[in-house]
Backbone:
């Protein structure tokens, strides 16, 4: 379809026919991972000069960068809130981040992701400390390979800490997919495309404990029991990511301390 | 200003009733408003349905035309779902290009239809890789008294059930009924403290946009889910919501059997 | 024509070749109507909860709904008028209202219809009673079959009364067409497409008397004499519609009274 | 502020003169300003005309190219009319996409051309259903001293009379003159109380945008009409306006005979 | 290329293959001009009634008109500058000004030309005399034949003087091109399309002397030496245009004086 | 407000250092910041490069796909350059369609590539008049600490050097390296009084946007030039800037030889 005039909800979300590809071979996933194994993750805090906080993050082949600006003045003024900060979250994909060049600018998918991501952070950021201010979270997907929204949330959390924004907990995000009838953690592109379901979660973690769900979406087909199992699997994965987020933050501060000595 | 004060009063009222386990319109916490479904009301459309969910009214029209398939699924029809929150339907809607609310609405409805494989898209291929049927699902809100999502999703599947593929008009053989094989139903709840209200009205939403939509299919599979709103959800609540949503969807699905 | 980049003034307005179809057979119109006969009309007031006033109207196969909001605050403020209300009128077609799916959003035709419709109401609504306020009239065409602008005007009038907006008279609208060389009242799609001319009128009616012309447009070909005859024909039709508008309004108020008893 | 006071003074002046049956520039009530038509001034265009109607100046350029016909009229050329009210032409025009004023202008001019069947579109079919000539009529306002509609309509038909179909450039045979067979002329009047002023200037418009445009063709048929502005029109006035407009159009049409 | 979704930087700027056409024959240019010869120029000041200042200018086959409005109020207010006037410059091409109809509205090329043209005038106009005001320069290309930006700048200068805007000097603009290996002044379309380089200059001229460069852009290929020679060639050409600008202004004022006598 | 005062202080500091012939970061007037070029970092792109110019960071990705050629150059590939100044990269950038700054950036970079004939477009014709390769050069700014233009131009040519034409993916034969045959380098300077600073940082730009970019190629030809900013430039300075820019471009070009 040429799709010149309609913005079409595909192909990002549509499940392709599962008979086209076998995703689990000998109890292992295509990239050799176990069902409950995360992709390799690399996190670096404070990678940008201009932003107040920033983070570069790789999650498998995903490469994303997050920046936080604020608290700062809100323009135009009528968008200010008298008793709390206004949070903005902008998820954006670079045109070259996907197989077929993406036209620059927001599409319907990125508008939706930006909305649910912002809603995940809103109850966690201590907005009431910064009346009339704005806190802007910008995430750029430089390379996409399934799970970009979770990668971006993980990066944004580190950037927020790097910017010194006070929060009630850290947001950590990971998806669970159903492929070839089994649940797998942190699906990559092939599992997302040919799998039966995809469930991105984001959790609030405080004092090393998962407290609540900040984001959950789902598309595909799962039984109620599978969905409950998926949540457990996601929680385990999230704890591992949480530790890597903490490490990245600490590494940044150690570097600063060393520098300052 | 007056509007805000009114909202605060409503909010207090909703919360005080809720402390007694009651809702302001007398419904049980998991009770859905009365539903009316009227199909085939727009004869210019290939299918249509007007759903009244309490005082919320949504009209969905289905238009179909031949088009090119996506390269990676060359033998399947294409679904395009669009929602227009026209200013007629609510004092808070404004004319203009779709905002995040209407985009989210369209996408949540779309996912329910798509992921339940409600329409057998493989039967909508005219010529592999060249020409397939495109299904335009247009959601037209008329009166927003709360929970547009469930009303829209119900109107969408009702309209699809009522759709005839206009093959003759495009000289592609005989008309035939759109092959619908699953019946996704979306159930939205409002999370308030440790309780939740199924199918919230607009007045109930004065306590905040703390919603979750869970769509399940005829086999009680979950096919779409969307937490919507700035709030945190406990695991316990999440589990309860899934169970209730699947159960209530079953109730609503009964209504679709008469179409 | 692909028409992807140009908005084209067609085919709504273009007269198709009249030899393609015979519109008058044995002195009757295709749907059996006499020349000066209206299509069946159905009007219901107060059909929407959220709007301050509303109306559902069918005129032949046209199905339209009108809502009125206001008087209410105007945003943004610089659009306010210090000594009178600002009237907006938005004519919109649902994508599924016409044979070939219409792309959502305003096109040039609907911008023009909105303008002339607003201009018809502006001298009739007592704007001076509501300084700094806005009165918004929204009409949605759910199904179109020629004469949508007249159907919408008729519905808007009932919605305005339902909303309690004070007016100097009621607006009633009907078109006259020329088909196969004769004038016909309230043309349907075939007559509009294959006819020779189309003249939509709207009148102000007060105390049961047509006082003036609030809207007139025309495209096609008519002699001066025909145009004058068209006006007379339209006036007769308008009086009938006016009575139906009044009935719908009274029915609504009777219903309320019964309810209140 | 100063602008508004100035407008009020102008308005009073226009009205006081009118009480004596006079216009501020000395014209009779039904007198049209002096008209100059200059054609063929844009050699890059297939046709062009600059019309000066008093101090109002409008340039119309015609471009043509092959394109696909509309499916329901597969053997006819296509007319596309566009108006740009560039900010150069008036302190009140702003850059940006067409607003309701420029859309109305383009559509009223378009209807005059289209409904009078001024261009024989059946002669502009290259291959039925596949390729026809598309005519772009671009109205470019240069100086708006009132009554852009009549100046634009006159420039449009003048430019069409002056248009050569660029068949050679597109390797579709020999160039040929655009087949123009009718001469629609738009006459706009300003309705003030029980009088009306034909071809109003901008100063006269200070009394309000109470306009009606009546376009008639070479056989005195009315081919387009548009009441424009927030006012009510009496039947009596409507009849008078029709008669005067047809008569004045005849006068103006004489000028087109020399092109 | 269909180019439906991308705005493409072509073909205005792209040099076509030079072997397609010989641009210098017997030491003369295609239109018979010498290398350092301008195209015929025609300038008329004060051609529009509504504008505060205006100018019609032909430069070869280019036909442009410029209008100046201001100093006047700036809307919206937040665009006002407390201590000086805000200058706007809008370069626009009529759809029929070029061989293939141009879609109405600004494209990337005209946005860039508007920017550099505005930046040429900003240091020359005495902005500090008109705090909170706006001075708007609008130029319309009615027919284009290479060098439209220079023609528009020349017309804008005359329109500014006609509007009585105080300036520190006059802006005069001309381009130099390299074609068939030689530099030529004021290139026309063929020289621009098939030439090797194009360098538009604008100068500030005060008291009959070139004082500085207000605009310079370049695309193509030139040696450093050629570039320096190009500047000298442009300066000579600019002085001739400057005299024509002065003449046009004086002619307007003489006309006024005669009228006033 | 605080922002403006800070800018004034920076400006004074830059100017006072400059009076002593010094720059605030200790560089010589014509000294370029340290440069790092990392290529092939986006494996989904046909080519990519991240350039760090001091603290300024720009990522350029190259995507290629077959498309139709321009009618007047039917046998050449097409270059499309686009710049997104995403709000991540600077507190002054805002989300939205390209503004004049990003358009100018894209066009200046484009001209350097195009006019130096860096890519041999004649080798990118698949079928004359029908199908050629389209090269999308997407400039994605990450951190704007001044002089995005030079960083972007350098990242663009670096990414092109690193690009493989994805012929196999489109079933058009074997993949092959993009034929790059010239190495344009842009050098931007900030003009301050009678001096100029090559490769200005953002702090230095506090004295005003008085820039000129001169792009030269491997043979020291000038291939693109752009005065950018509201200021007047003396002839003398213009000559000096050309000479210095060509010389500094030669230095930078050395870095490209290792890619």
Residues:
């Amino acid at each position: 379809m040429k799709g010149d005039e309609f913005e079409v909800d595909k192909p990002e979300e549509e499940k392709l026919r599962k008979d086209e590809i076998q995703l689990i071979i000998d109890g292992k996933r295509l990239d050799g991972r176990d069902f409950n194994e995360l992709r390799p993750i690399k996190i670096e805090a404070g990678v940008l000069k201009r932003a107040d906080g920033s983070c570069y993050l790789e999650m498998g082949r995903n490469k994303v960068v997050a920046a936080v600006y604020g608290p700062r003045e809100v323009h135009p003024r009528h968008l200010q809130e008298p008793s709390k900060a206004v949070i903005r979250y902008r998820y954006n994909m670079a045109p070259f981040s996907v197989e077929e060049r993406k036209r620059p600018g927001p599409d319907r998918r990125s508008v939706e992701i930006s909305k649910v991501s912002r809603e995940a952070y809103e109850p966690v950021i201590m907005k009431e400390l910064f009346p009339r201010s704005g806190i802007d979270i910008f995430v750029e997907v430089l390379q996409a390979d399934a799970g970009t929204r979770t990668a971006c949330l993980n990066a944004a959390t580190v950037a927020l800490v790097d910017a010194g924004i006070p929060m009630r907990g850290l947001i950590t995000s990971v998806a669970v997919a159903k492929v070839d009838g089994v649940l797998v953690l942190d699906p990559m592109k092939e599992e997302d495309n040919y799998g039966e379901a995809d469930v991105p979660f984001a959790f609030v973690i405080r004092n090393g404990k998962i407290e609540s769900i900040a984001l959950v979406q789902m598309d595909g087909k799962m039984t109620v029991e599978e969905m409950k199992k998926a949540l457990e699997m996601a929680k385990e994965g999230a704890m591992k990511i949480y530790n890597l987020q903490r490490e990245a933050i600490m590494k940044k501060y150690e570097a600063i301390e060393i520098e300052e000595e | 200003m007056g509007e805000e004060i009114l909202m605060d009063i409503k909010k207090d009222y909703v919360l005080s009733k809720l402390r007694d386990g009651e809702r302001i319109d007398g419904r049980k916490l998991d009770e859905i408003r009365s539903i009316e479904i009227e199909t085939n009301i727009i004869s210019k459309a290939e299918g249509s349905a007007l759903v009244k969910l309490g005082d919320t009214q949504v009209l969905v029209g289905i238009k179909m035309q031949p088009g090119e398939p996506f390269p990676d699924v060359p033998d399947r029809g294409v679904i395009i779902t669009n929602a227009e929150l026209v200013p007629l339907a609510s004092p808070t809607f404004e004319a203009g290009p779709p905002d995040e609310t209407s985009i989210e609405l369209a996408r949540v409805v779309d996912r329910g239809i798509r992921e339940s494989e409600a329409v057998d898209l493989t039967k909508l291929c005219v010529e592999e890789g060249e020409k397939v049927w495109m299904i335009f699902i247009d959601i037209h809100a008329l009166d927003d008294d709360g929970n547009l999502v469930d009303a829209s999703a119900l109107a969408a599947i009702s309209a699809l059930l009522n759709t005839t593929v206009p093959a003759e008009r495009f000289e592609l053989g005989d008309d035939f009924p759109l092959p619908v094989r699953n019946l996704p139903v979306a159930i939205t709840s409002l999370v308030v403290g440790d309780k939740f209200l199924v199918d919230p009205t607009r007045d109930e939403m004065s306590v905040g946009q703390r919603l979750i939509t869970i769509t399940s299919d005829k086999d009680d599979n979950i096919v779409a889910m969307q937490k919507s709103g700035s709030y945190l959800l406990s695991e316990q609540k999440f589990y309860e919501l899934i169970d209730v949503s699947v159960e209530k969807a079953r109730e609503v699905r009964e209504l679709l059997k008469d179409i």
Remarks:
- Chain F has one domain: 2-258.
- The helical segments of chain F are 2-19, 100-115, 148-161, 235-256.
- Chains F and B do not touch (no CB pair under 8 Å).
- The CA atoms of residues 85 and 101 of chain F lie 9 Å apart.
